[in-house]
Amino acid sequence: MGKELEFNEETDIVEKIVEKIVEVEKIVEVEKLVEVEKIVKVEKIIEVTKPSLKCLESCKHCEEKDKKIRELEELKENLLFDVKYVKESYDVLNKTVVGLKKKNLEVDAAMTMMSSTLMTKQKAINEYIENCAKLKHDLEFEKI
Question: What residues of the chain score a pLDDT lower than 70?
Fold first, then answer.
């Protein structure tokens, strides 16, 4: 009788230790998540995945849990796919934006160069026009 009592006490202690380890693991998982919404979702998932201790055979309650687990796994896979797709799209968009910024800087430099060239040529043309006007004036003066 005394050995059975010791065995039951040791079994209880081992079960309590296992429960504490599971709780600590859950706490560590929860602490890794930053957003409060994610923490709530993880707790719900953990709650759903707990096995039923009342029955050894599958029952309606267990089937509902299994169905819910499958749905959540499918949802998780879809979300992971969406995240990968969004990341790839973001990378492509980022490359495009960087390329367009570089092209914009090149166009800006070309416009500055063209503007300065235009001003130089405009000054030269104005000088030619002034010289032509002066020469016409001198020619008219000579005719008189």
Answer: 1-16, 18, 22-58
